[in-house]
Amino acid sequence: MASATTTTTSSNTIKIDPLTEHLRNQKREKLLRRLIPILLTIPYVLGILWTALHPLVSVITGELKCRGSYIDENGLDVHRHQVESYPLKRVGLSVLPLSDVHGSDFGMCDAIYSGRLPISDASVECLRHEATGDVVFDVARIMPAMGPMIDSAEAIVIVVGEEQQCQAADGERNNNNQQKDGWYGSSDLNASILHMIQKLGNSKDAPWLTKIVYIVSPTTVNNVDHKNATVDTSSSCQQQTNLTAVVDTFITSYLGGDGGDASSKHVNPLPPEFSFPMIRSLLVLSDVVEEQQMTKQGNTQVRILPQGTGGALPNLDLVFATYYSFQTHPSGGRYDQSQSIYYGDSEFRAHPFGTELENRVEGFFTRLGSMLELDKSSLASLQSYASDLSGWIGFVAALVIGPVQPHSFALKHGIDALTIEVHVPTTSVGASAIHPHYADFSRCIEHLLRSISNLHERLHHSVAQYTMPSPSKFVSHGEYIYPAILVSLPMVVRAASLALRDMTSFQFVFVGTVVGTVLLASCVNAYTVFTTGRSFIGVMMMVVAWVVHRSIPQSRQEIETGVDFDTKNECRKSLRFVACLIGIYLHVPLLLANYSLGFPSAVFWTPLLAIFALPDHLAAMCSKNTVLKTIMAIAKILLLVAISPSTILPSNISPQYALILYTPLQLLLTALWLV
Fold first, then answer.
1. How confident is the model at residue 596 (pLDDT cuts 50, 70, 90)?
2. Residue 675 in 3-state DSSP?
3. How many CA atoms lie within 13 A of 282 on its CB side?
4. Cβ(105)–Cβ(93) below 8 Å
């Protein structure tokens, strides 16, 4: 009987059928060919859609709404106190001596010392400071009546901008008011601020004040002979110092340094007794009247603008404390809501672009809702979303292209600062009357000062990276960084697929030559921009194209396989791999530091570097067809010209971005498309 059959393996080696392995590789290759385009496009599209849904969805909180306003620091709670209403009439202009009415009240200090209001000399001191030959401003220092609570006193600065007075008939009228009534009588905002100075300097009205308050007002530049009290009226309007220059020179004077963003001239320092406390907060109050499209509207408009240069933003608590202060009610029981700047049918925004942007976005969504035949409720929700989306776009655009706000220089010095623009459509309420919205505006500012005075800012921490669809909503850094990563992810996928799958041989010599040329050309272009103010990006593109043409090695035949080695294709893949790595390296820190600039840049460059790349078989087919090759070459050249920095970038965009990020990527893309 035959014994049982046994199988003994003398080796652990498993023999694999070559045909099976070939089929498996083909299946894997087919799967990768389908998967890579998906990984290149789906994250990019999801990132853009996620960003568009910021006004509707908050992943951090898990709610179907944008995060609302809140104050992180309990000491800033504005709802724990109330402030009395401000007077609606000016005081005693008609009973003043003629010398005080005509010719002497051309600045805030003149108004303080004129005797119009009983302002305490012990708490309030004012001086006129000639910082430079062009910038002169008045500085009122208000000391806490009860004395500072700590040895190292903190200070709050309020910069008050008068009405713009260079407007034809209106400018002539305001000029006459300035000559007749002075600083106090020429502007309702100035009048209300003087009443606030009186209250802050009184220990009975402001016993809560624990920080030193500086009120800064630009002094009107005109030909005034103070000795003879005469005014040069040959000019149709007065020259008023720019608020941005005032803030720059005030901070420079306060720090005792030379130069600033506004001027390279010598800046005279403030006296030591005016510059010993540490400035923690700065508010710029700008009274806007020159915009014709705003003047035609009947609603008061308030813009709370935290945007600084380079993506800088103040503490989010300061923004929301400001907005909450406008929502407060004055003490004393019932009051007329039409006199409230917040409840009197006013419009609040967190960007400086007015209604034009909102009208365009809302008009588009309104037409979309009509096409979809939505009901009234859905259409109202769609319009609300359009309003928040346009507000978010305006906030981001203001960080990227400006206009530069007056408080920006303060943010560079680590001072939490913002600009509040207010526009009241008309002030025709009587010669001595103060418009109720200006009076309530000053009451809200006092309310905000009382909240800030409760807090020791040295220990205050909150959010400083955010975007805002409206003054009552925000999108935090932890919310918007995820779609930013998704938008940039295709560059990572493309670089990984090239390194692990597509590239056969990395062309070190070619890539090193091209990248070195790009870096050298970028440096030369930056030097010419700084020295001559002109960009020679077109010349640099031609130089890079010539270097690419001269550096591509000739195709060769593999000795072992006898197959032609496509050197040009390998050079293209190697250069795209490096371009994606450089794109990632440049955008990651930009997204973390300045999202408002980094996200649009990533949206723009990711398709050009990673997504828009022809597969090998299509590229080979186009290279063999002369007509297609010519058409594609012309299209690439036209597109390169269309996206050059001098063509597509706004003139007021950050020059560091244009020279350090955009120009190198533009030259790399030129080399990549011309291989």
1. very high
2. coil
3. 30
4. no
For residue 47, give every residue at least 6 positions away whose Cβ sits within 8 Å of its Cβ, in sequence order, or none: 483, 484, 485, 486, 487, 489, 603
How far is the C-alpha of 483 from the C-alpha of 489, rounded, in Å? 10
Residue 218 exposed, middle or buried by CB count within 10 Å (0-12, 13-18, 19+) = buried
pLDDT digits (tens, 9 = 90+) for 151-180: 557 899 999 986 554 444 444 444 444 444
By C-alpha distance, which of 322, 150, 127, 309 is closest to 217? Answer: 127
| Amino acid in the structure at residue 63 | E
Q: According to the model, what pLDDT value does residue 75 have?
A: 67
CA distances from 1 to 7, 379, 591 (A): 19, 91, 81
Cα–Cα dist 280/453, whole Å: 11
With vertex at residue 89, the alpha carbon angle to CA 85 and CA 92, rounded to the nearest 5 degrees, is 125
Q: How far apart are CA 350 and CA 472, in angstroms?
A: 9
**How far apart are the C-alpha atoms of 133 and 130, rounded to whole Å?**
7
Assess contact for 63 and 54: CB atoms under 8 A.
no
Averaged confidence pLDDT in the chain: 82
Strand 466-470 and strand 473-476: the pairing is antiparallel
Could you give the CA distance from residue 570 to residue 565 in angstroms, rounded to a whole number? 9
3-class DSSP state for residue 625?
A: coil
Q: Rounded to an integer, what distance in angstroms lies between the CA atom of residue 403 and that of residue 309?
A: 9
Q: What percent of the chain has pLDDT over 90?
A: 38
Q: C-alpha distances in angstroms, 671 versus 43, 511, 579, 594?
A: 27, 10, 10, 28
Measured between its terminal Cα atoms, the distance across the chain in Å is 77
Sign of CA dihedral 619, 624, 625, 631: positive
Over residues 277-336, the pLDDT tens digits come to 889 899 999 988 654 444 445 788 999 999 999 889 999 999 999 999 999 988 877 778
The residue among 467, 469, 417, 156 whose CA lies nearest residue 308 is: 417
